[in-house]
Every structure is written in C-alpha cells, then in structure tokens.
Design brief:
The protein is α+β, with helices and mostly antiparallel strands. It is 44% helix and 16% strand. The strands form two sheets. The protein has a two-stranded antiparallel ribbon. It has a two-stranded antiparallel sheet with strand order 2-3. Keywords: Signal.
C-alpha cells in the first residue's frame, strides 16, 4: 500500500469519526416540548407530546416515543417552514380527524407549499384520513374545486343561482 493510499485512508477514517460525532441521534424523550410534535426518532417512531399535571392545576409537557413507525424518515425534526405551511402547531398533544372538517386547515394541508414539500406531515394526515375511511388526495381535490367555485362566484364568472325557496306549506 502506498503512502498516499495510507494517508487517504487515515483522512477518510478521521472524517468518518467526525461526521458520526456531529450527527445527533434523535431520541423523543430528549427533545424539548417545542420540537416534539411532528418529529421522528432515529428508530423511525413518531414522537408525541404528552401533557401531565404537576400540581395545583399546573400542566407540563413531555415528549415520548410512540409505537407508530414511519417507513422512510428517521431522526427527523419537522422544519418551522413546514409547520407553518401545513397549518399545524408544535404544541399539539393530540391529532384528530376533526381537523378535516375545517376548510382552513384542509387548504393549508393541501397547498403546494405543504403537500409537495412536507412529506412527514402529509404522510401523518394521509394515514389519519385513511383510518377514517377518507382519501387525502380526494379531500385535497375537492378543496381545490370548492376554492375555484368560490373564486368564480366572487368574480362573477358563472355565478351559480342561489337556492330556490320552496313554497310554504299550507295548513
């Protein structure tokens, strides 16, 4: 082995130790509450923010590892950009399918800024919707169509006629 090859191997080994030392392992229980929601541990399990009473009605928060496994993301903490774009909150201690009833939330989730750039959040809500027998792509499609219809009505382009009142029943 030549001296230049040995030198290259030594540099490679030293760099690999440096990189391993700088990559932090994500352990849910070690995350502060303000980074917990929408984070994924290094083992691929979702982190969840839990609240608990500490006395006299005071509540504190702790990050825990859930049993929910994410297939493609490991050691991931969601960016502030995605949290804002998707209309979610890091203080969330639970997630409910009731959010799909909010057109404002669905508009955020289905926006290109979220839907095309934030796979962690989209995958979470995709699975939540599927668990309720809903299709997130269909919800997003319907949300976009409803938005286009509202814009057309507001712009006077093909405004739909309002509902016709039925005659009052006679007694």
């Amino acid at each position: 082995m030549t001296s230049s090859m040995r030198f290259s191997l030594v540099i490679f080994f030293a760099c690999s130790l440096f990189v391993q030392g700088t990559l932090a392992e994500v352990v849910c229980e070690n995350l502060p509450a303000n980074l917990c929601s929408f984070a994924i541990s290094s083992t691929g399990k979702r982190c969840v923010l839990e609240s608990y009473k500490i006395g006299r009605g005071e509540i504190d928060y702790m990050c825990r590892t859930s049993e929910v496994v994410v297939e493609r993301l490991y050691g991931y903490i969601e960016s502030d950009h995605c949290v804002k774009a998707c209309g979610v909150h890091r203080e969330s201690t639970s997630i409910s399918s009731d959010v799909f009833l909010s057109s404002e939330f669905t508009a955020h989730l289905c926006s290109p800024a979220c839907y095309q750039n934030c796979p962690n959040i989209v995958e979470l809500f995709f699975n939540l919707a599927a668990g309720e027998g809903l299709s997130l792509p269909t919800l997003c499609h319907n949300q976009k169509e409803n938005h286009r219809t509202m814009l057309a009505i507001l712009n006077g382009d093909g405004a739909a006629a309002g509902p016709v009142a039925a005659p009052a029943p006679s007694f």
